[in-house]
């Protein structure tokens, strides 16, 4: 019997990530090739016409899994009955703007969208925040949607995770699918810590640690980390636009693994509400290694953290605490 359609909200759907993301969802890349979907696309009134253009293209693409499209600039209509919400819409930092000004705009967007989701989304709606500052936007959403379980609100660091896999595979000229268990700790910003201490590579003679195969600790602790941290800026420099197809694809990976589970023996990185694991202050949305099963994520426990890593974990936590304080100061 055919499955009931799942309603997926994409905010900022007229933007460039939205344009890459909605066809992926409609093709089953996010939820699977046998899962019908109804797309809810939300944007703001100045983007209303462009949003309708995207809707026309979705109709023209005749996706068999796509059972309906709601294209709207009304936040309540956009959020009504959604099972999954991918929050891509936000206010970008423009030249000459202070960090606080951008934060004020985004805090007010995420505060109002939190209420709309809380009051109108389907029960147990899963939320993924992509728009920057992703961790702090997700935290504001959580604070202003207290009836949505904290476990249901996450932010995207899977793009950084995938970038780390990509860099290791390029360095060793191996398939990216043979690399696993890198970790992105902390903020989706340049203080994030891409950690390969537990990462492995599939070889004909079994799994081997990344460090053993790379045989260049200097590269791993300097250039590799910097490349992953700065990859977003490198894409902007090359494309004159920020990453979109990789962000959209990683958002699909994030939701797919959350809903369908991570493969046995592997983990992924997700920005989730800290419970104090690894001495990360509780009350931050922080990227951890997680496994997923039955639609729930759990933080991987018991990984050893060396002194170098400890400093990096603390540094990115400090930045998140500062962002949190800034966000709260914008609310008052
Ligand atoms: N977490 C990540 O890994 C990651 C990666 C890349 C980009 N991003 C972030 O994702 C966001 C979107 O990037 P983009 O390149 O698609 O930007 P974009 O400017 O092309 O699109 C953003 C869209 O959001 C809309 N929007 C603005 N305010 C809105 C609101 N209140 N409600 C609904 N929609 C609203 C805009 O009209 C626009 O259509 C940015 O914040 C970007 O920094 C995050």
Describe the structure.
With 332 residues, the protein is α/β, with parallel strands linked by helices. The chain has 2 domains: 6-155, Rossmann fold (3-Layer(aba) Sandwich); 157-328, L-2-Hydroxyisocaproate Dehydrogenase, Chain A, domain 2, CATH 3.90.110. The protein has 12 helices and 14 strands. The chain has a 6-stranded parallel beta sheet. Strand 4 (84-87), helix 4 (99-120) and strand 5 (126-129) form a beta-alpha-beta unit. It starts with 5 loop residues before the first strand and ends with a helix. The mean pLDDT is 96. Bound molecules: nicotinamide-adenine-dinucleotide (NAD). Residues 11-12, 14-18, 42-44, 47, 88-92, 109, 130-132, 134, 156, 159, 188, 242-244, 247 line the site of nicotinamide-adenine-dinucleotide. The site of nicotinamide-adenine-dinucleotide has 28 residues, from helix 1.
Helix/strand layout:
Blueprint: E1 6-11, H1 16-26, E2 37-42, H2 48-61, E3 66-72, H3 75-79, E4 84-87, H4 99-120, E5 126-129, H5 134-143, E6 153-155, H6 158-172, E7 179-180, E8 183-185, E9 193-195, E10 200-203, E11 206-209, H7 210-214, H8 217-221, H9 223-229, H10 231-239, H11 245-260, E12 268-273, E13 285-293, E14 296-299, H12 307-331
Parallel strand pairs: 1-2, 1-4, 2-3, 4-5, 5-6
Antiparallel strand pairs: 7-10, 8-9, 10-11, 12-13, 13-14
Domain Lactate/malate dehydrogenase N-terminal: 6-153
Binding site for substrate: 93, 99, 132, 163
Keywords: NAD, Oxidoreductase, Tricarboxylic acid cycle
């Amino acid at each position: 019997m055919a499955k009931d359609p799942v309603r997926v909200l994409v905010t900022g759907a007229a933007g460039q990530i939205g344009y890459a993301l909605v066809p992926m969802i409609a093709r089953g890349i996010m939820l699977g090739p046998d899962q019908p979907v109804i797309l809810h696309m939300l944007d703001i009134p100045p983007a209303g016409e462009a949003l309708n253009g995207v809707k026309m293209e979705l109709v023209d693409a005749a996706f068999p899994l796509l059972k309906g499209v709601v294209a709207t600039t009304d936040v309540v209509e956009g959020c009504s009955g959604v099972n999954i919400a991918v929050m891509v819409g936000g206010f970008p930092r423009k030249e000459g703007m202070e960090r606080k000004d951008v934060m004020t705009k985004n805090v007010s967007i995420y505060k109002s969208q939190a209420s709309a989701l809380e009051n109108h989304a389907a029960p147990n709606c899963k939320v993924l925040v992509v728009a920057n500052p992703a961790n702090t936007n997700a935290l504001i959403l959580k604070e202003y949607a207290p009836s949505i379980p904290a476990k249901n609100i996450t932010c995207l660091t899977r793009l950084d995770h995938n970038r780390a896999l990509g860099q290791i595979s390029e360095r060793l000229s191996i398939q990216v699918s043979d690399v696993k268990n890198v970790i992105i700790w902390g903020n989706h910003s340049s203080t994030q810590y891409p950690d390969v201490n537990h990462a492995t590579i599939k070889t004909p003679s079994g799994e081997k640690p990344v460090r053993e195969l790379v045989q260049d600790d200097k590269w791993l602790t300097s250039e590799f980390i910097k490349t992953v941290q700065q990859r977003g800026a490198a894409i902007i420099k090359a494309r004159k636009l920020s990453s979109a197809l990789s962000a959209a694809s990683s958002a699909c990976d994030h939701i797919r693994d959350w809903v369908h589970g991570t493969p046995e023996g592997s983990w992924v990185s997700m920005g989730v509400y800290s419970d104090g694991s690894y001495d990360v202050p509780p009350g931050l949305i922080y990227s951890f290694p997680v496994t997923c099963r039955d639609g729930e994520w759990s933080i991987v426990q018991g990984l050893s953290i060396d002194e170098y890593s400890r400093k990096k974990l603390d540094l990115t936590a400090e930045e998140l605490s500062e962002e949190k304080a800034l966000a709260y100061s914008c609310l008052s």
